[in-house]
Structure to design on (186 residues):
């Protein structure tokens, strides 16, 4: 029996979302794929009225800090709006340019054959209602590329909101940190 994670759609709560590429393959190591993801995050935030507080795209996983602007929302719908377009584009790219990868991302469930870009399930979703905790999470996710030895300082990682916070430089995703104004940092 498959366990389903319950989403808590509580007005006023931010969400720390983490999701991973299938079998932790480094599908997000290519700028092309990260650009697709950035566009998908921007589109989902606009379509579903979410503020993107922070993000980091690592080679095999993603961290997003988002805040729903509407009192009624479904974080699962938002997450699907981010992940699904990227998965479709990436699998299409593999079919055309790297068909040798298809066997690695294909699985059969009963009679259904699936090609997976993302690990099954919704990933990790943590509700956050404390702006100070949100700041701690933001610092943690910005440090991911440093811990992995990809950069020496967080703001040098191009697929992160760190440069927006540290230097005021725009990145591939549109940061909307109005929720942080209550904590004195933005």
């Amino acid at each position: 029996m498959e366990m389903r994670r319950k989403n808590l759609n509580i007005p006023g709560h931010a969400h720390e979302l983490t999701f991973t590429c299938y079998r932790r393959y480094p599908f997000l190591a290519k700028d092309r794929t990260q650009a697709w993801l950035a566009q998908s995050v921007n589109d989902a935030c606009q379509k579903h009225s979410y503020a993107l507080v922070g993000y980091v795209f690592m080679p095999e996983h993603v961290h997003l800090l988002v805040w729903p602007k509407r009192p009624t929302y479904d974080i699962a719908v938002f997450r699907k709006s981010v992940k699904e377009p990227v998965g479709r584009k990436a699998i299409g790219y593999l079919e055309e340019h790297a068909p040798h990868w298809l066997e690695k991302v294909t699985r059969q469930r009963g009679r259904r054959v699936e090609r997976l870009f993302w690990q099954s399930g919704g990933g990790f979703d943590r509700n956050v209602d404390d702006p100070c905790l949100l700041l701690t999470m933001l610092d943690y996710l910005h440090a991911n590329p440093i811990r992995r030895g990809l950069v020496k300082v967080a703001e040098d990682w191009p697929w992160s909101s760190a440069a927006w916070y540290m230097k005021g430089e725009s990145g591939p995703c549109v940061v909307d940190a109005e929720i942080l104004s209550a904590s004195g940092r933005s």
